[in-house]
Amino acid sequence: MNQDVLIKINERLNWLSSLKSIDKGESITKAIKNSGFSRRDFMKWAGAMTAFMALPASFAPAVARAAELADRLPVIWLHMAECTGCSESLLRSDTPTIDSLIFDYISLEYHETLMAAAGWQAEHNLESAIEKYKGQYVLMVEGGIPTGDTEHYLTIGAHGTTGKQSAVKASQNAAAIFAIGTCSSFGGIQAARPNPSNAVSLSKVTDKKVINVPGCPPSEKNIVGNVLHFLLFGTLPALDVFNRPKWAYGLRIHDLCERRGHFDAGEFVQNFGDEGAKNGYCLYKVGCKGPYTFNNCSRERFNSHTSWPVQAGHGCIGCSEPDFWDNMGPFEEPMGDRLYNTVLGLGADNVSDKIGIGILALTGIGIAAHALIAATRKDSEV
Ligand code: FSX
Ligand code: SF4
Ligand code: F3S
């Protein structure tokens, strides 16, 4: 079975290698070497990415080859309404990582933050990139998209092109489309009540299939992992109900959290800075939304596996879930009283206080709560 998949992957990689590479004067392999990474570092990275994408270890050489062929995959990256944190997540490391090097390499065809061009030149660059790589480019869109009467909020350029028009146009001839970040996936902060610009997700404005890579911001690993996955398979990954790749968003934060033992033992931080906080206790009572949030932060962390919100001492705020700005707040209070009590007639805090080991009940409640959040979203995003 794995063998059949590998044969297919190698056929695809052979086809990719027959395509013209983006001309950067040197190959990706060379660029990585020139940045001080040895072949051994690179293969180690490929092995880690293979595990990260939940593929068998025997796929590591194919993953390495896919990374080396990433320059066959032009990326067009558009900015809509957002804070640019998604680009920052990927590009602002102290030292370049292999992920950021690969991404830098392939993304410069058109990236509004990174490119040198401005004004007419920038508009021209976008049009020519779409034309030149018709049907081949990967479109990545960051940010929510203002619509309706207020879509002029994102109007740019001499032709008065709106953000919505740019996104729709670029999506028409893309080989794959990724909504990068929660804003593009679900509307994000600008779509939070009262949503003055009528911002919506990318999937709401295009009739093409969109893969959502949420997180505010998503980790650099989730962004690059999706590019690699597309290079390897050329098809859509298995997606959850919110069109998030299951290999990245299949588990809850809570499932692999390093503080989970304390949750199970009923050991909670009651206030920031208390004894429990010093002892690394569970952050549920100071607002952690890890039990309702599907993402891989507790396993992969950020900044080359350095840390993540819960490790830094603050609860997860549910940033990869639809409408989290409206649904997950207040961010430093537990959902318990508001959600569990009203919906399920159970106080999660009572459960965890009285029983201590509330794991089974809470897991069930967590899942039910997640389903409820899904059912009560303002709009259907999928
Ligand atoms: Fe949104 Fe990306 Fe949050 Fe910011 O731009 S997902 S506001 S981190 O950066 O789109
Ligand atoms: Fe970790 Fe938050 Fe779950 Fe506690 S509630 S175990 S801090 S994810
Ligand atoms: Fe976001 Fe929670 Fe991860 S806040 S970054 S999904 S830990």
TrEMBL record:
GO terms for molecular function: 3 iron, 4 sulfur cluster binding; 4 iron, 4 sulfur cluster binding; electron transfer activity; ferredoxin hydrogenase activity; hydrogen:quinone oxidoreductase activity; metal ion binding. PROSITE patterns: TAT. Keywords: 3Fe-4S, 4Fe-4S, Iron, Iron-sulfur, Membrane, Metal-binding, Molybdenum, Oxidoreductase, Signal, Transmembrane, Transmembrane helix. [4Fe-4S] cluster 2 binds at H254, C257, C282, C288. The chain crosses the membrane at residues 355-375. Its cofactor is [3Fe-4S] cluster; [4Fe-4S] cluster. One of its GO terms (cellular component) is [Ni-Fe] hydrogenase complex. PANTHER family: HYDROGENASE-2 SMALL CHAIN (PTHR30013:SF7), NIFE / NIFESE HYDROGENASE SMALL SUBUNIT FAMILY MEMBER (PTHR30013). Heterodimer of a large and a small subunit. Belongs to the [NiFe]/[NiFeSe] hydrogenase small subunit family. This is [NiFe] hydrogenase, small subunit. It comes from Campylobacter mucosalis CCUG 21559. The gene is hydA.
